[in-house]
Amino acid sequence: MKSMTGYGYEEKQDGKVFLAVEIKGYNNRYLEIYVNLPSFLSSLEARVREYVSSRCRRGKIEIWVRVKELDADIRISVNQGAAKAYYEAINSMAASLGMGETAALGHILAMEGVLNTEKNRDAERYWEALEPLLAEAFAKFETERIREGVHTQEDILSHIGFLEKAAERVAAHGPDLERNIKENIKSRFEELLGDAVDEGRILAETAVLLMKYTISEEISRLSAHLGEFRAEAERNPAPGKKLDFLCQEINREINTIGSKSPVLDVSREVVAMKDALENIREQLRNVE
Q: Where is the Endoribonuclease YicC-like N-terminal domain (predicted)?
């Protein structure tokens, strides 16, 4: 079991380039990946996304890649046409104003579009440096998810253990339920018929009501769901969706038991079971 929340960070300087990778994970119903790369490395987004999606199944994951070029290889070109046009325009303006000045080189270089700069950036070369750094950051991210997932699993299974014990206590009240129904029927017959009470009729009416109010099937299904929940949590590294479904089934059986049983102790157990199940569902919101 893994948590959906985690954090990983790694950085290094590779020659003339400083690289840093930061990964953050949050709980989310589905898998959502956000990749933040410098614009000149946008062609690498698909590779980063594929790397993460092949290792995560649920959660909102943000990947930030920061690049600082310490000694960039820059190519500079001069736009001769723009420079000439600026030169002629400045001189023409000076002449029309009666000024004896001419355009200086510094004035022309400051104009937009005269000098064009282009950095020599090879995306493949960046990926060769970025891929191992991404792997190191993700390893830290994964370690955090596993560590938190272990604690979450322990807490969830402790609540499952409580539910299993509670189900056993509820099942033990089966005879109380039968006795309660039988006593209620007998008291009603005595009110109506006095001492002329037919024991066979009481047993027949009791049997009819037991078919309606018995909780043995619900207890059986509840126990099966709890067993499947425990097995799924222990064998599946990403059980979140299946456990969500099992919680719905467990909740349905608990509600049915509560609505059927007139035994006060069973009602108390049902309240405690609902509380434990709510704690489990809260924890599952952060399970992959």
A: 1-152
pLDDT tens digit string along 131-178?
999 999 999 999 999 999 999 999 999 999 999 999 999 888 877 666
| Domain tally, the chain | 3
CA 46/CA 127 separation, integer angstroms: 12
Whether 85 maps to a domain, the answer reads yes
Measured CA distances, 252 to 30, 87, 157 (Å): 24, 83, 19
Structure-token match 């009791």, residue found = 206
Range of the domain at 151: 146-284
Is the confidence at residue 202, as pLDDT, over 60? no
Give yes or no for a contact between 65 and 19, defined as CB atoms under 8 angstroms apart. Answer: yes
* pTM (predicted TM-score): 0.71
Say how many C-beta atoms besides its own lie within 10 A of residue 169's C-beta: 14
Closest CA to 180 of 146, 215, 150: 215
How far is Cα 194 from Cα 202, in angstroms, rounded to an integer? 14
Residues near 265 by beta carbon (within 8 Å), at least 6 away in sequence: 169, 173, 176
241 and 136 in a common domain: no
Nearest to 261 by CA among 191, 172, 164, 199: 172
* 173 shares a domain with 92: no
Give the distance from CA 69 to its chain's centroid.
Answer: 35
Query: pLDDT tens, 96-129?
Result: 887 877 778 888 888 888 877 766 667 888 898 8
Q: Which of 43, 19, 44, 24 is nearest to 34 (CA)?
A: 24
76-99 tens-digit pLDDT: 778 888 888 888 888 888 888 878
Q: Which residue has the tokens 């990403």?
A: 238
- Alpha carbons 60 and 63: distance in angstroms, whole number: 10
b or e along 78-95 (b: 16 or more beta carbons within 10 Å of the residue's beta carbon)? eeeebbeebbeebeeeee
Q: Quick one: DSSP state of residue 3? A: B
CA angle 118, 122, 127 (to 5 degrees): 140
Amino acid, res. 124:
E
